[in-house]
Amino acid sequence: WPFFIPCSWVLLCQRCPSSIRRRVASTKFRNTFLESVPVLQWAPHARPEEYQRLQGHGGAYGWQDVAWDSLTLLNTLANGHMFDAHPGTADGNPSCIRCAVVGNGGILNGSRAGAAIDQHHYVFRVNGALTTGFEQDVGNRTSFYVFSTNTMMNSLHSYASAGFHQLPQTPETRYIFLPDHDRDYLLLRAALTHRPVDKGPDNGPLQQMAPFLPSPDGRFLRSSILDTPQWWLYRPSTGAVMLLAALHTCDEVSAYGFITPDYRAYSDHYFDGTHKDVRFYANHDLQLEMKLWQRLWKSRLITLYTRD
What we know:
alpha/beta
């Protein structure tokens, strides 16, 4: 399944002189960045031939054990594009879409980056997206909250003591749902039909959520883990999926709170009460992600926040 790409406003993006789409052709990412593949998935993508092909792949990479009726429920055109409107300037001409993508890294603690983050057209957040009490460092706007079933449940459990008790809920906020397993599709079906989850550990009612974004393939983040017996554990982190989605949708991307080579100097999260070392697990290759963010930054495709 092709998982990423282009600006929903292709003609407008071409009129943005600093657009990533203009700059990528002169970088080493020119063959990795595909403009012909939609970022958001909705009903037209659930074609019978694709369903048959992807039933052979499980987890984040296919539709194994996923019911056909779950895939065909995304029948609203609103699920087909990321942004409701393109930002305009005072003279009516389109401006560049500027996006802030905010991870939860401890590098943001004491950063005073909040005002700069909130000045972007759109702000992406993920996992324990705490803003109350941390506005000065991380801002308070959330345009898009990105999650899978596991990251949502784990964040609500793991970060409750820090004050994360519910997903961001503002008039601006929209949800981007990442399917990792048949469990995710069960929750998706329940949300779209306004019915309780009918089986599994999440049995019960669920609030509405939209739009829907597939997880990425290995074009940007093909880890060596995939060549080991633990291959089935691996997927890019939710923060990585979020940043790559913004990279393929926005004209300009600023990344805040993502892992940098000096990560040992900071706590795991900006909201940690005491210092916690960053830990690495087999399901994500954070070292590979860190190298990718450095390469994208050096190619001037993103602006990466550092404390320098």
